[in-house]
Design brief:
GO terms for molecular function: tRNA (guanine(37)-N1)-methyltransferase activity; tRNA methyltransferase activity. With about 325 residues, this protein is α/β, with parallel strands linked by helices. The protein has 11 helices and 17 strands. The structure holds S-adenosylmethionine.
Length: about 325
Amino acid sequence: MPAIKVPKREAEPLKRKLKKLNLYDGKRRPRSEGDFVLLPVIDDPRVYELGHEVLPVELPLRPERQIYKNLESVLAERLTSEELKYLRRYDVIGDIAVIQIPPELEHRAEDIVWGLRKVHPFIKVVAKKGFHEGAFRIRDYSIIWGEKRLTTVHKENGVEIKVDLSKAFFNPRMKGERYRLAQLVKDGERILIPFAGVLPYALVIARYKKVKITAVELNEDAYRLGLENIELNRKRLKGEIELIQGDAFKVLPELPTFERVISPTPRGVDALALTLSKAQKWLHYYDFVHEEKIGEFGERILEECRKQGKDCRVRIKKVSDFKPHVFKVCADVEILG
Ligand SMILES: C[S@@+](CC[C@H](N)C(=O)[O-])C[C@H]1O[C@@H](n2cnc3c(N)ncnc32)[C@H](O)[C@@H]1O
């Protein structure tokens, strides 16, 4: 859930304003961080339009609600404390809950479904997730409860995203990252997004900024869903999105350069030289890097900049945990000349 970061002295008046606008999330507790306070707000596009920094933070539920709202505390009724240690983080994508169930909890699958339905009464499907596979990065899922489908419409950052988890990659945890990029973009920019999937980045950016986006995706199913998503959101988009189906390594060399390139690179693919060659001012390049190799990764980018005759400044941000000591990172590469 989002939270607004505000200097302490402004917290009380802003809290009153948020309550008036019905945007304050009273089920959660605010949190103090140095000279700032994080105020819990509901997931509504209006919170992003108040001129304050909005962060994706899971602020704790107030104790009286926690009993009903937190999967771990619900399952404490049925699972032992030893079993609870194996409980993994789960995602709710539209009306589908997806959870990884480790072998130690396989025998508790029914209880986990019961707990998820208690915490999220609106869900219609519970799916067990496996790993991402192949170039299209599609996860292997098995439905363990509910309707036999893996299609749904997910709401995020003020857009609706139709997904089919059996056919195309989608990661709801990148919501904050998509919002971060949308904030960096300026009206009027021309943006290139290879590896575009069902278009989550393109939709969120075009929702908030008057830009022209060219997106490229190889997977035909993701491409088809991407086109549906442009239609689904047509009325709320300020920007325009053109979607090309094809292999980024063949399509990009035929395209002009763009002010900004965003590369949600599939794991194991090296598209650094290709995407940098298409960027005039900014490249946001995602990759998976061991924490001890982050410096090396930055050096590799600077070396590629030198090769291409570009003077660059690189800032690397950890975006999420991938596995122990390995992070999904985003290199924000600014091309100075
Ligand atoms: C990590 S996913 C990111 C998808 C999307 N940007 C998102 O965040 O949901 C990488 C995407 O690149 C696509 N892909 C893989 N190889 C490709 C290629 N050579 N050209 C274009 N797209 C490709 C996959 O089908 C997949 O949708």
